[in-house]
Amino acid sequence: MQYRRLLLRIASQYPCREDLVDSLYQFIGYSDEILPEAIYISGPPCCGKTVITSALLRYLKHLRYAVVDCLECYSSKVLFEDIIDSLSYHEPTYENSFAPLAKCDTMKSFLAELRKGFAQDTVVIVLKNAEKLRDMDANILPTFLRLRELSGMNVCCILIGQIPFEKFYPKTGLPSVHHIKVPQYTKEQIEMILLKDSHRMGQALKEKISADSQIPEEELQKRLEIISSFNLDFFRNYLSTFLHMFYRVCRNLIQLRMVADECFEKYCEPVFSDPSMSSNANMLWRNVSGTLKAALETLYTRLNASSIENSQNREMKDFIQIVELPFYAKYLLIAGYLASHNPAKEDKRLFLKNHGKQRKRLKSVNAKAKVAEKTMLLQGPATFSVDRLLAIFHAIIEQKVCLTCDLLAQISTLVELGFFTRTTTDRNILEGSARFVCGLQVSVIQRIGEMVGFHVNRYLCDLMQ
């Protein structure tokens, strides 16, 4: 009965993750049972791994727990001391000179402090971004996986990461762990979560409008009343339109929520002028489509709303950065954009000289021109592999270029600059399964094409006539 109430309480806060709560509860939820030595929770970013684990631990009163982010721990010493401080509810402040509760320079001293302070407790240690443990001393990860054995305590270590556990294995091997895989949210689940958050979306829009001093008081009150009258169907229509465009290129719930908030005001503009327009989905779609397109193009560059409204400044900022790139990097950038905006099945026709003739009819050309803008708007940039990127690069550059370390390093540079965004969790970007996306605007790529003497429009399927 207690478990059922707990499950319903957490599910009301974090829907669509009942399986994760159930699996974790079976391992650590019973106070009269010994904890497993280690649990590894893997899944893509922003799928609820950490927040749901922390929520469950807060409700389990028989546990003493610590949640530490390995990304913030630049050394094993900092990691050990953060765990002890968190278990002891000690917070470094100005009054205590930001000193830790105990100094733990080695794993031996950490185990000693653990036994000294918490020998009689049931302890759970949660390590976020556990991939960073691979970069620490070789004994850190194996020790945390055998913490119960080495400390003689009832302690469990929960590792949370994004990569498969097989990529943790060193040459000497690792103890076995219980593995919980958390899947990505489906489109329907994301829509349900965002719809559950519709009240907050409406409140955020009210605050945004209230902060605008240019709106007259009478008009302001009118808009606030209209926002209060929005029902779930209105929010559902907006989210369905929004996710139809964005879900294909982004599954990050936090980022989707942020962009949905930014574009919601534009969606509501026709309703502010005429409240009866709230049921006219086609008119609302036409009004917001331009804003959604701009947001889609800047999704992976992580720019704010003001940069979406001022596209010229954004383009110039990207252009200034790209001008300083090496010659081959500019061609790699063009190749990445073509790979993101052309279907892979069209590569042979676009980039090979002897691809055979293709008959063009006036009817098909006009039809393609008519749907070109709609196709680019709805689909957005697609992902591509390194192999396809290099194949297009060698096809579009006029001179013969050998595949060297310098050329491969320039791909990493484009990723670091944010022009390419990695959409997979591969640690090495040159692995065969690594995939990327290019989120730059076509106008920026066209300018780069002019600099190197390359006609971009001739190689874009949606712009060819």
TrEMBL record:
Please list the residue ranges annotated as the Orc1-like AAA ATPase domain.
Answer: 15-157
Q: Where is the Origin recognition complex subunit 5 C-terminal domain?
A: 325-460
Q: Which Gene3D superfamilies match?
A: P-loop containing nucleotide triphosphate hydrolases
Sorted alphabetically, which keywords does the UniProt record give? ATP-binding, DNA replication, Nucleotide-binding, Nucleus
Q: Could you tell me which residue ranges the ORC5 lid domain spans? A: 235-271
Q: Matching InterPro entries, A to Z?
A: AAA_16, ORC5, ORC5_C, ORC5_lid, P-loop_NTPase
Q: Where are the transmembrane segments?
A: none
Gene Ontology BP term (one): DNA replication initiation
Q: Which GO terms describe its molecular function?
A: ATP binding; DNA replication origin binding
What's the protein name? Answer: Origin recognition complex subunit 5
- Tell me which species this is from: Lutzomyia longipalpis (Sand fly)
